[in-house]
Design a protein that fits this description.
The protein is mainly alpha-helical. It is 70% helix and 0% strand. This is YwiC-like family protein.
Length: 265
């Protein structure tokens, strides 16, 4: 029997089948639905983790910690989107998937290393700040960005604790990463959302100068890379770079910081 599908004219475009929820089965759409377009966040998430593992040595709980950390970020992203939009049902699928991934892996880490619970109050406070700004629909506020930086930086201490290493041993690396990550907040604003703002540009340059001094006092081996960061903060805002170009440059900078911190440690 010949069906309507059999009699389509050659070359005629057809639509992909819809999923049970009425959405297209297009893989690209599925990725966009479950992976946020926050490309810069991945370097900020991974840098403290990688530095921590490199400094204290890998342990088996570091693997579930990594997956829980990344899935937890995705869970928090969509949770804050739900808070911002006041439409939690819109993000129910993402919240369900990432909660199911995060919860058992985080529990595995806690059972293996109960001492990580000491960081729970700090994460609770920082996440509460993020949630408040999401509710106010001001996620791009400076304080909110700095809270996100602190959330990421604390992961270095968590990695050390998971390895059974006293966090004090990685405090210099922790400080260096915070100097860098906090500076990226100001720098990226001068490149995109606050382009042309003299106030932000001056604040960014002043901060990077102070960070250079602080990093040099921390370890002179950090001075060259923080000098590079100061130069990029002072020079690049005058150039009209696309966000993708800004992102590539920042990936290179994060790799330089990674190398410098490991050498200095």
């Amino acid at each position: 029997m010949t069906t309507r599908a059999d009699t389509r004219r050659p070359g005629r475009r057809t639509h992909p089948p819809a999923d049970p929820g009425g959405r297209s089965a297009n893989p690209g759409r599925l990725v966009r639905r479950f992976v946020p377009p926050q490309h810069g966040a991945w370097a900020m998430l991974l840098l403290p983790y990688v530095v921590g593992v490199a400094l204290v040595g890998p342990r088996w709980p570091h693997l579930p910690l990594l997956v829980a950390w990344l899935a937890g970020y995705l869970l928090s992203y969509y949770a804050f989107q739900a808070v911002k939009s006041r439409r939690p049902r819109r993000f129910a699928a993402q919240l369900r998937v990432y909660a199911l991934v995060t919860a058992p892996l985080a529990l595995t880490v806690v059972v293996a290393r109960p001492a990580v619970l000491w960081y729970a109050p700090a994460y609770a406070v920082l996440l509460a700040i993020n949630a408040w700004y999401a509710w106010r629909r001001r996620e791009r506020a400076l304080l909110n960005d700095l809270a996100s930086v602190a959330l990421s930086g604390v992961m270095l201490l968590v990695v050390a604790t998971v390895a059974g290493v006293a966090p004090v041993r990685v405090l210099p690396a922790f400080a260096a990463l915070l100097f860098y990550l906090a500076g990226t907040v100001l720098y990226v604003k001068t490149m995109i959302r606050e382009r042309g703002s003299t106030t932000y540009l001056r604040a960014s340059i002043a901060y990077h100068l102070a960070a250079l001094v602080a990093a040099t006092l921390l370890d002179v081996l950090l001075a060259p890379v923080f000098l590079v960061l100061l130069i990029r903060a002072a020079v690049l805002p005058a150039r009209r770079l696309r966000p993708a170009q800004v992102g590539v440059i920042e990936i290179v900078c994060s790799l330089l910081v990674l190398a410098a911190v490991l050498v200095a440690s």
